[in-house]
Amino acid sequence: MKKLLVFALVLTLAIGVMPAHAQEQVTLRISWWGSQTRHDRTIEAIKLFESQNPGVTIEPEYMSWNDYWIRMATLMAAEQLPDIMQQDLQYIRQYADKGLLENLSPYVDSGALNLSDSDPAFWTGGMLGDKLYGLNLGTNSLMQVYDAVWLNELGIEMLQPGYTWEDYVAFLRELRAVLPDGVYPSADVVTNQIYNLITHRVRQLGGHFYAEDGKSLGFDEALLTWCFQFEKDLTDEALIPPMDLRLEMGVSPEMNLIVTKQSVMMETNSNQLISAVNASGRPLAGNIMPVADDQVMNGQYIKPSQFFSVSAHSAHKDIAVKFLDFITNSVECNDILLAERGVPISSKIREELKPKLSEVDAIVFDFLGVAAKYADQISPPEPAGHSEVYDLLKTYDQNVCFGEMTPEAAAKEFIPKANDLLANK
């Protein structure tokens, strides 16, 4: 009996001195898509988090882009989404509208998710209305990529941030005057695609490509006519290549004319600078998009590469948010991840990582710092029907550039068709 009492006393004391967090075993599920490099680095970061949080186990699941969304649709139907899931701008609204994602704003307000070192331009892309549903894991922004060495050889100075649409056209004409036939000042219309051109311009006028409810376009015939005419004028003056050459080139940086020195500039997302440099085998630099004399807000915006979201049905939301804070603010964690998902949102982390980066990575980091000064909050995520509208827009854009329709006729015909597509979704 005495032995039993002694054992009970020892057991009680042992439990009493146990750390509180060791008494609760928590298992989180996390899912993402990406490359093998992303998988390896994220798993290593998870192990670091687990070592710093005894009692917490994180079970990872990772796959390719296509397989990921098929898997998430299956889990969504079964109400078994992981505690933390990687999200994308084109899908986050669908998941949030179904009540599947936790609003992270209260955690930001309490400091549990510390964004004090992050400019709002870097993280508000995960907001729908006044609620934050996705934590941005990396950033990029539209970039004018240019060959600074070539410009120097031509005796022409690159435009400085804050240049206008008029400055941009004058700059292209200056280049056109000294370049041979078959070589173009820029590989494409500013912002790379007609969709981005419209988005940039309508934002400058205080709107967005889509109406707030996503059931119609957010611009009128006059604005679309201006954009079609602007692109056509650049094409007609050979300031950018003809449409057939642009279609042949596609959107891959490796296929761009700047790679073969058939253009001095190209337009792409900033995270593609590395691919362009590798493909061209020479140094390249980056600049922001044009501003407008009549703008009421900036057309430029900081775009999330992807998000981490917390399931609204997670039984361990606080721990999930703690992991998001760890991904955002831990220097040790980001030493492992090394900005594989894009430029980190924390200015502190960016400064810590810069000495460890390649020269090209450092250029992208610096560019995002400049772009943030000329950026406003990103437009709301695209609504259902976006892909059909996007394809329809490309058709009319080609009709204009091939001379089959006038800008006015294309705008007049496109808008009601696009609005019908959106209204019926």
Please outline what is shown here.
The chain is of the alpha/beta class. The chain contains 18 helices and 11 strands.
Sheet having the most strands = 5 strands, mixed
CATH topology of the largest domain: D-Maltodextrin-Binding Protein, domain 2
Rg, Å, rounded: 25 Å
The shape, in one word, is globular
* Terminal-residue CA separation: 75 Å
Provide mean pLDDT, rounded.
91
Under the CATH scheme, which class of the largest domain?
Alpha Beta
Secondary-structure-derived class:
alpha/beta
Helical content (DSSP H or I, runs of 4+): 40-55%
Strand order of the biggest β-sheet? 2-1-3-11-6
CATH architectural type of the largest domain: 3-Layer(aba) Sandwich
How many domains comprise the coordinates?
Answer: 2
Q: Let me know the CATH homologous superfamily of the largest domain.
A: Periplasmic binding protein-like II
The number of distinct helices, counting runs of at least 4 residues, comes to 18
Low-confidence stretches: 1-22
Order of helices and strands: HEHEHEHHHEEEEHHEHHHEHEEHHHHHH
Task: Give structural notes.
The structure is a single chain. 47% of the residues lie in helices and 13% in strands. It is α/β, with parallel strands linked by helices and 425 residues long. It folds into two domains: 25-138 and 306-373, 3-Layer(aba) Sandwich (D-Maltodextrin-Binding Protein, domain 2); 142-300 and 384-423, D-Maltodextrin-Binding Protein, domain 2 (3-Layer(aba) Sandwich). Helix 2 packs antiparallel against helix 14 (331-337) and helix 9 (194-204) packs across helix 10.
